[in-house]
């Protein structure tokens, strides 16, 4: 890929940014980035290691301790964030295309991701500019002035996943910068290119050197160092449960602040009354497809568990499977393509393993369950897998318990509202869930009883930058977005001033 005229080529080998300079890896190592639509390399990046991570952390530490950014007036920080949003709008097509090619999603999904990233930068700019000078605390005396203020945490390590590389980076970078922090970010080694492009835009917007640093490289070296380095004050990680646990353990040794978003096994609960009309039925089926198969199911909030009332199960699942078979697979930039490939061969094999185990445990295959024929992927030949519907599933199945991160939908049934709640909550995770019903009382009861960080009623997948995002249970610790997302990157400080000090006389002598 070539960059726009006058801009650095983000797919070039110098993808490590430390202290204001673009660098190759200290070791000279590189990594090929594969296009998942055809499994062919299309970019070459630096493969950083521990030495590069140490240099980046040192640059971020110096920029925080000695540089201007933590003390830059809020209005100026907000103005820079808005400028970044404007640059994202300017480069929407280029970055959207890069995200499509790198992560395998459709071009339209890539464009929407860029729009959402711009929204996040604007939101956090507006949030900090609208704040006061601190929260005044009533100490019960006119002689006492007491206020709680917020200060940046310091140096932040950020480790992001491969499925939404640009979006997940923005959910960390925007609030961190708004709060006055410096950072080092490690994107996934298989989808790093749009994060590199975002750092380019931060530089173009005028961010001081050393505030934003990026090291492209693997998790077991770069990610591990970002988690355990003594000069890091906060670690924010989005990814799988196993890796997230290791990050938390490493960070705990240094008593660092930790924010973890570790995925979900998200229920989509459909009551019969939501399907009482043809329009309602059509909408619920359409949204169930959207919940499970957008970005080939590689979404932490994917509605991969359809929990449907028994009386409408057969009709609903039959129509769902029929439509799933018609989803058009292919390269995300091709006209008419509705779903791209999985991100890697490893991810496709993992999906195949889950489907095989489900069939062995008694699930009934209603659609998909295999790799498509080459002629069905228009004509890309990468890591494709057909949208798969598995009927007659139950909680003991591996595919129901664990996060697949592929285009696989399992179907469970219920008869009563209590049963529906029990099934929806019968998971170690608790990121998101949805309920479909025309009964407002039932919708309210379900929303209160479902133990998940986001509950959608008669919808699936939308989020707002103003509203917190995160989960219960093993879905993680902390929140992104919203005021709580900004608070993650701050420390609270209580300043207590006695305007008329007097002796205490506690001690007689």
Report on this model:
InterPro entries: Ald_DH/histidinol_DH (IPR016161), Ald_DH_C (IPR016163), Ald_DH_CS_CYS (IPR016160), Ald_DH_CS_GLU (IPR029510), Ald_DH_N (IPR016162), Aldehyde_DH_dom (IPR015590). Keywords: NAD, Oxidoreductase. The active site is at 261. Belongs to the aldehyde dehydrogenase family. Pfam families: Aldedh. 39% of the residues lie in helices and 19% in strands. The N and C termini lie far apart (79 Å). The protein is α/β, with parallel strands linked by helices. The longest helix has 23 residues, at 107-129.
Biggest pleated-sheet summary = 7 strands, mixed
**What is the alpha-carbon Rg in Å?**
24 Å
- β-sheet strand percentage: 15-25%
The low-confidence parts are 1-6
Q: How many E-type strands?
A: 20
Structural class determined from secondary elements: alpha/beta
What is the average per-residue confidence, as pLDDT, rounded to a whole number? 95
Q: Largest beta sheet: what is the strand line-up?
A: 14-15-16-13-12-17-18
**Envelope shape:** globular
The share of residues in helices is 25-40%
| Terminal Cα span | 79 Å
Helix segment tally: 15
Protein name: Aldehyde dehydrogenase family protein
Pathway: Amine and polyamine biosynthesis; betaine biosynthesis via choline pathway; betaine from betaine aldehyde: step 1/1
Domain Aldehyde dehydrogenase: 22-495
Family: Belongs to the aldehyde dehydrogenase family.
